[in-house]
Structure prediction request, 325 residues.
Amino acid sequence: MPSIAAYEFVEFVETAVFLKDEPVFALADGTVRMPAGGERTVEAHSGGLLAARPDPWNGRLLTGGEDGRVVAVTPDGKASELATIGRKWVDRVAAGPNGVVGFASGRTAYVRLSDGTVKEFPQERTVEDIAFAPKGIRLATARYNGASLYFAGTDSAPVQLEWKGAHIAVMFSPDGRFLVTSMQENALHGWRLDDGQHMRMAGYPAKVKSWSWSAKGRYLATAGAPVAVLWPFAGKTGPMGKAPLELGLRGDTMVTCVACHPAEDMLAVGYADGMILAVRFADQKEALLRRGGTGAIQTMAWDREGRRLAFGSEMGEAGVIDIAG
Prediction:
């Protein structure tokens, strides 16, 4: 049976990650908690924390907050300011290759290059999300009516990818061939980047607020339904004309968070009632990892070995599940 080291925080858990194999939790109150071996608290932001994402290239956590700062938190608990934009809120952050960091506020996306130079990319509408391609310094922004692509190291004009509606999150596929957005209207949209071919993935009863690529990038797992919906991306055309996998059905309980295992075709599925299951792709075999709690699962992350799963909920519940017991 899996074992759980449980933690209780008083704030919404924005992001759970592992830094050097230790669990780290970024909270909405502006703190980053490192509870293993005696809790350490890092004061990342005065006021609230609005965004937190891991930087896998540099083994750190990037955060943005109401104080207009972008901060990097390292495994030793040190917080370093990478950029500041004064009184504006930083509500999106993203890590890129070669030490590049992206962030967004209002109608402007920013890229901090490896030499510390900060470039601005103003837009006509609010920047809803940002992401970097896995290679090179190519930045994507999600916006109203589509997405924009920039080569951040140059001054070339952006590539505009249009699709009507509000696009609220954006992500590249691990091989860089596809760009996918989550939309306000309970759907995903995608583009094949070599020719701009559209991909529409609809049918969700709720917004897709959590997604995760499988170990080899063959599937994109998503929340937003009473099951985890996994779209196949292995072929040249992506998911078009193919039925998605559906895993972890529990009546009408909504899936609120998904996290693919780093090595195996297995998925951690978090639900609105706090339950967490592990489900294998091949035979849909399920294993109960957590029975439930008082809040919906907001965030989950596997360690590098794929043995431990960190999680956090909207009500401040958090923990680390050792699937080997």
